[in-house]
Amino acid sequence: MRIAFYAPLKPLDHPVPSGDRLMARLLVAALKRAGHDVDIAARLRSRVGDGNALRQLQLAELGGKLARRLLRRYETGFLPRPDIWFTYHLYYKAPDWIGPLVAAELGIPYILCEASHAPKRATGLWAASHRAVEQALKQARAVLCPNRADMACLAPVTGGQKLHFLPPFTDIGVWQGADSLSASQKDAAVNSGPVEMITVAMMRPGDKFQSFVLLAKALAALPPDLQQGWRLTIVGDGPARKDVAGLFGRFAADQVVFAGQCDTEKTRDYLARADLCVWPAINEAYGMALLEAQAAGLPVLAGDYGGVGGIVRDGETGWLVPAGDPAAFSRQLAHCLANRAVLKPVGQKAAQNALAHHDISAAARVLDCVIRDVIDQRGTP
Q: Which among 172, 367, 147 has a CA at the least distance from the CA of 264?
């Protein structure tokens, strides 16, 4: 099948890295792995973060113009006509002003991945965008959900039969080598030196910053006899870096290392040296960095929020604590530091689970199955 792919929240070539951009790229790779041809249909970023009504109307108008231009190009043969339209990440701040128009005009299925529905936005600043999301959900022939928590709100709009769980995924092979690379290092380090912890996250205001706040509080609340038993490497950067650095100013300079923004290879090297990945995950959808850490053979300590429980198996591949509770996070962290021998076997289980259930090859099979079911229901184009 030829698939027209669109990511209205953040296009695949956006210069700022994030989980959204990564997931969009992984979806395209998984669709191609399943044997489909994928065209990037549009790059319009539709997000309106402040609820500006005029901006929403402007984007809706621009989306309509882009849809008409695409249709002309499909009709003239300038672009190959798609069999399916596929939109990734849809919500009231970032609706799809293009896909529903094109799919309806061409008479092709419209498929969504990672959509959310917020009934409280039916009135207020984002009312127009909310209506667009609701209409897109009704039009969609299938909605793939990496976060099971979204499915309850989506079912009344879409009907439960349209919803399909797509476990969060990554290219596990990219990260797997970190586990074997670090095996000898970790064996030598058991019961000697500090426990090496790692956090991989963007430094920006809002939920990310609040997770850093909680992490700093949890570290400060560790018992005195464990205060020197750890070292933390923070991989990531962003506009809130100065404020994040200030949160950890109470600790020794060599105890918290700011590695900055790193590419995949460098991040993999840092994961290879670590014993434990820590992240409070406040308002986290599921956390790609947590999945990558597990793929690299690290156990994860995280807050139990959203879809995090879908990739971290509590007590098996890591530990989950109540979301937003620094005391609970600190208690579990103290247990990990005091019982460091458990970290390696839990990390090994994490790597096995990631490969079995969260590899891109498994996602490709799910995507292909959903797409073929949608096509079979309407007849082959």
A: 172
The pair phi, psi for residue 35, each rounded to 5°, is: 100, 10
For 326-351, give one letter per residue: b (16+ CB within 10 A) or e.
bebbbebbbebbeebeebbebbbbbb
Q: Which of 43, 42, 39 is nearest to 14 (CA)?
A: 43
| pLDDT score recorded for residue 159 | 87
End-to-end CA distance of the chain, in Å?
A: 9
Distance CA 118, CA 258 (A): 37
pLDDT in tens, 163-184: 999 999 999 999 986 555 444 4
- Structure tokens belonging to residue 68: 């008409």
Name the residue among 7, 22, 28 with its Cα closest to residue 90: 7
How distant, in Å, are the alpha carbons of 109, 162, 208 from that of 1? 12, 20, 38
Query: How confident is the prediction for the chain on average, in pLDDT?
Result: 93
Beta carbons within 10 angstroms of residue 250's beta carbon = 11
Overall average pLDDT of the 221-242 stretch: 96
For the four alpha carbons of 123, 129, 132 and 133, in that order, the dihedral sign comes to negative
pLDDT of amino acid 129: 96
Distance, CA of 305 to CA of 315 (rounded, Å): 16
Q: How far apart are the C-alpha atoms of 334 and 59, rounded to whole Å?
A: 50
Residue 17 scores a pLDDT above 90: no
CB atoms within 10 A of CB 249: 9
Sheet holding 230-235, edge to edge: 256-260, 230-235, 195-200, 276-279, 300-304, 318-322
Instruction: Tell me how far apart the alpha carbons of residues 141 and 297 are, in angstroms, rounded to a whole number.
Output: 37
